[in-house]
Design brief:
Rossmann fold; alpha/beta; 4 helices; five-stranded parallel beta sheet; RNR_NrdI; 5 strands
């Protein structure tokens, strides 16, 4: 079974923390049942060399906005742009099969706005969200969604 690929960006460390715990959980599930897919995660940053993605991937992106409320007074993305540029690179966008968002629910309508915009921009479903560093329940739920969504792509 092909591994499931995940790309993410982390600014404050929340998404990285979530992905580290997500990977530990995924590895544990694979060890218990080797018919479950392996999951590979890769952090995209300003230092990342852009490459052509040959396999489908999921994206996890936090929301950071600078200016506007993201709804009716415009939006200016802040700090996560390199991930969007990476997905835009060559023919990577069609390989994106799902978007996971994170943020802070205190920001109401702006919660997970970047992920929702990525989903629309890259024609991929917005499949899940978590707040801040996520909970153990979020990890289990998102793992199950990712595995199911990946199997549907085959």
């Amino acid at each position: 079974m092909d591994p499931i690929n995940m790309l993410y960006i982390s600014i404050e460390g929340n998404t990285r923390s979530f992905m580290e715990r997500f990977m530990a959980y995924a590895n544990q599930q694979h060890a218990i049942d080797n018919t479950l897919p392996e999951i590979k995660a890769r952090e995209i940053s300003e230092q990342t060399d852009f490459t052509d993605e040959a396999e489908p991937f999921f994206v996890s992106v936090p929301t950071y906005l600078d200016g506007g409320n993201g709804i009716d007074s415009g939006v200016k993305e802040l700090m996560t742009n390199v991930l969007g540029e990476y997905i835009h690179y060559h023919n990577n966008a069609p390989q994106c099969i799902g978007v996971i968002g994170s943020g802070n629910r205190n920001f109401n309508e702006q919660y997970c706005l970047t992920a929702k915009r990525y989903a629309q921009q890259f024609n991929a479903p917005f499949i899940a969200d978590f707040e801040l560093r996520g909970t153990s329940r979020d990890i289990e739920d998102i793992y199950n969604i990712v595995v199911k969504q990946s199997q549907q792509q085959k």
